[in-house]
Design brief:
The protein has 417 residues and is α/β, with parallel strands linked by helices. The protein is 39% helix and 15% strand. Strand 11, helix 12 and strand 12 (337-341) form a beta-alpha-beta unit. The longest helix has 32 residues, at 193-224. The structure holds ligand SAJ. Residues 114, 147-151, 203-204, 207, 211, 244-245, 247, 250-252, 254-255, 312-313 line the site of ligand SAJ.
Length: 417
């Protein structure tokens, strides 16, 4: 097939490569000149296992440029952010506007981006219909095929996960299935477009609500004088229970965002409350810090506080919507001196130091904001020697099994003294 992939981000580009590797004739399109140039001159990097090999094997069937061209199939993989906590469809709509003049009778248009319910038809179908004399699901076909790959294991999951093929016509389902079957080893699950949209949103909302429950358990465990880690590990021994982990906040471009898409214009009190609980966790983490500093006879004002981890989750270099940013903001508003350390992240809202020794020099407190593997082997005795007297650790990820000697230690959901 001749395929045109619009949006060469962390999903769009590997997907274009997988399709090219499978033998399709693929044109990848991105509005960013920098992105197009970096792909074409080979300097583009995606820190994901297996990406380099995939890129190399895709090259002979892949052309990358700034504007779309005619194809049998158009695949839209553009960002769908939030704007004032409401879905912002503007990138999807501009992609639809860009391809509309190129769409011909019998073509298939697939949306991979996560969108609010009905947006596949209302944001893409309608735009193409209005700009052509064609009807969606009659003259051209529409499908929603949401990505569900986990950053950090992206390529493996793009190939091996089951995929939802959402389309409202048999022909749309058949054509979409044929394309995905060429590179995807997982099951291809047929559904209508709105069902596919809501299923995708439900996956990430399930995780958001489950994490909020874990966070609520953490807060009540602190009040009860018990450790939430023990509670969750015991409860999870039940064969049908899987409570997620509490923490200093929920980040990334999906879990804190997608529930807002699902509930837009709806009365959804459970999901709204879950979002509120998760969004309150950075503030709670600073509350634990203030208590710990108080025990040390210190105040947050003027204290040097080191955030260990800018990434939104362990072992990735991605800091989008990272709770560390919120933590830094609250610390700064409390007049603390903030230093951010991360072994992987290069781009963040605040300067990032990569040497942990110099980061903690003269610090009063450390907040573990990301559970990077590297932080499991920190020499705390050495850190203590570099820090001020009565050093504090607030473990925002329950990373440490116990308080390192000589530290005042607090962790989420654990009322240790
Ligand atoms: N987090 C917790 N407690 C947990 C698990 C995660 O506080 O028990 C926090 C993490 O620290 C992180 C945030 O949640 O800040 C999100 O991380 P994540 O690992 O839950 O998810 P993402 O955003 O990396 O990827 C999710 C995945 N969705 C699900 O697992 C249902 C992925 O499969 C999706 O493809 C991706 O969203 C997406 O693009 O939608």
């Amino acid at each position: 097939m001749k395929v045109c992939v619009i949006g060469l981000g962390y999903i769009g580009f590997p997907t274009a490569c997988l399709m090219a590797k499978a033998g399709h004739n693929v044109t990848g399109v991105d509005i960013s000149e920098e992105r197009v140039n970096s792909i074409n001159n080979g300097s583009f990097k995606l820190n994901e296992p297996g990406f380099e090999e995939l890129f190399t094997s895709a090259k002979k069937n892949l052309v990358v440029k700034k504007s779309p061209e005619k194809a049998d199939v158009f695949v839209i993989c553009v960002p769908t952010p939030l704007k004032n906590k409401a879905p912002d469809n503007s990138y999807v709509e501009s992609a639809a506007n860009a391809i509309a003049p190129l769409v011909e009778k019998g073509n298939l248009v697939i949306l991979e981006s996560t969108v609010m319910p009905k947006a596949t038809h209302e944001s893409i179908g309608k735009i193409i219909e209005n700009k052509t004399n064609m009807k969606a699901d009659a003259d051209f076909y529409l499908a929603h095929c949401p990505e569900r790959a986990f950053p950090g294991n992206l390529i493996f999951e793009l190939v091996n996960n089951d995929r939802i093929i959402g389309s409202d016509t048999e022909k749309g389902k058949e054509l979409t299935k044929e394309l995905y079957a060429s590179f995807c080893k997982g099951g291809l699950l047929l559904a209508g477009t709105v069902t596919a949209e809501v299923a995708k949103l439900s996956e990430n909302t399930f995780r958001s609500v489950n994490i909020a429950f874990a966070n609520e358990l953490a807060l009540l465990s602190e009040n009860l004088g018990i450790n939430v880690k023990d509670v969750i590990s015991l409860a999870n021994k039940h064969p049908r229970v899987n409570i997620h982990a509490p923490g200093a906040g929920v980040g990334g471009h999906c879990i804190p965002v997608d529930p807002y898409f699902l509930i837009h214009g709806q009365n959804a009190p459970l999901v709204k409350t879950a979002l509120e609980i998760n969004e309150s966790m950075p503030e709670h983490t600073i509350h634990l810090l203030k208590n710990a500093l108080h025990s040390a006879g210190k105040s947050i004002e003027g204290a040097k506080v080191v955030l260990l981890g800018a990434a939104y989750k362990p072992d990735v270099d991605d800091a989008r919507e990272s709770p560390a940013e919120k933590l830094a903001e609250i610390l700064i508003s409390n007049k603390a001196n903030v230093v951010v350390h991360d072994p992987l992240v290069k781009r963040f809202a605040y300067p990032v130091v990569s040497d942990i020794g110099s980061a903690v020099e003269g610090a009063d407190a450390i907040i573990i904001s990301t559970a990077h593997s590297a932080y499991k082997s920190v020499d705390w005795k050495n850190m203590k020697e570099k820090m001020n007297t009565k050093p504090v650790i607030v473990d925002g990820r329950n990373l440490l099994s116990s308080a390192p000697p000589g530290f005042i230690y607090k962790s989420i959901g654990n009322p240790v003294k």
